[in-house]
Amino acid sequence: MAEQKVTIKDVAREAGVSISTVSNALNGVEVLRPETKRHILEVAERMNYVPNLNGRNLKSQFTKVIGLFLTSIKGTYYNVLVDSIYQECREYGYELNIFVSERAENMMANILGKRVDGAIILNQHIGDRETLLFEKTQIPVVFIDRKQQGEKIASVIFDSYREGEMVAEYLLELGHRTFAYVSGVQENYDNIKRLEGFRAGLLQAGKSLPEDCILYGAFEKEMAYRSTKEFIKHFRELQCPLPEAVFAANDVSAIGVMEALMDSGIQVPGQVSVVGCDDIEIAQLVRPSLTTVRTSFEKQGTRAVRHLMGLIAGGQTGCIEVLQGKIVPRESTCERIV
Fold first, then answer.
1. Do 89 and 38 form a contact (C-beta atoms < 8 A)?
2. Which has the minimum average pLDDT: 49-58, 241-250, 320-329?
3. CA neighbor of 66 nearest in space, from 127, 132, 135, 121
4. SS3 215
5. What pLDDT does residue 63 have?
6. Residues 308/301, Cβ–Cβ less than 8 Å
């Protein structure tokens, strides 16, 4: 016997409030006290309530819409990624809706309410709690910012740990002995794994990455530039030599690092080698051209859509696909002459 579907009336009765109050809580309408809203959402989750925002039975229908859930659309990575996802959606006859938000409840209302047939997620505000709901409700989801796997959950990620290791090995082969790292957004999966891999690669050769040689770049040129300028000033005040090589978590911040070094009278790569990550188009156009790790935004977006379509159609179960990168040597690095 099929399990009876939980309705909004059931949630209202269980929570001891009106139907309109439940509706306001589920749709993020800011008219409720925080404790009331929290209570209603907890009741709805406990009862496995799935709101039908389109007012129709979508179990036998498709919206022909994919949702892409982001926290930002700034920069080359997002531009290329979004376009590759959109173009692949078109191949399947799907539209793409883009949601840029930090509010998990609003994003979940769109996903669980079946306004989209499936979701591609690059958004740290959708966490473990929300992922458990995806598993319970069997909503097709593909993550591109973390490893997750379930019957209807897949991931398409870069091998960021190995990328960090490769950069360490490459710089060590060039004879560099001291190092710095310019981080991206602190909680970002790729940033965390690149740093872990970079440290591990250095450690294998008996080298270390001091905490005061980790700069905050936020994946942004301007932030990386300012952090590097402050870093240079600090080392000059201490009358200490700068690290011989810098690995930045992405190309945009690596370019900011190079500009800060050169504006401070420091030669790149004569005095400091710089490596980025991603191989965006401008990496080969700047001077000196940027040594980097080639990832593939286009492939990540394309593969994410293909996996999601397989989950929606029911012919595929969730898996984790890891995309490999490779070093692209250019002018921003050189052999260290002792």
1. no
2. 49-58
3. 121
4. strand
5. 87
6. no
Give how far Cα 162 sits from Cα of 77, 112, 177, 325, Å. Answer: 20, 35, 20, 8
Gap between the Cα atoms of 158 and 156, Å rounded: 7
| DSSP-based three-state secondary structure for 171 | helix
DSSP class of residue 307? H
Q: What average pLDDT does the structure give for the chain?
A: 91
Q: Rounded to a whole number, what is the largest CA-CA distance in the chain?
A: 77
The vertex-142 CA angle with 119 and 145, nearest 5°, equals 110
Cβ atoms 276, 77 nearer than 8 A: no
Query: Tokens representing 27?
Result: 């749709």
Higher pLDDT, residue 163 or 18: 163
pLDDT of residue 29: 65
Number of H helices and number of E strands within the chain? 11, 12
**Per-residue pLDDT band at 45 (split at 50, 70, 90):** confident
The DSSP bridge pattern shows strands 292-294 and 326-328 to be antiparallel
Given a cut of 80, is residue 53 above it in pLDDT? no
- pLDDT at residue 55 above 80? no
Residue 33 sits at φ, ψ, to 5 deg, of -70, 145
Q: Which two tokens stand for residue 337?
A: 């002459």
Structure tokens at 220: 């942004």
Question: Of 221, 206, 276, nearest to 248 (Cα)?
Answer: 276
294 three-state secondary structure: strand
CB atoms within 10 A of CB 238: 8
Which contiguous run of DSSP H or E holds residue 156? strand 153-158
Q: Are 112 and 96 in contact (CB under 8 A)?
A: no
pLDDT at residue 123 is higher than 80: yes
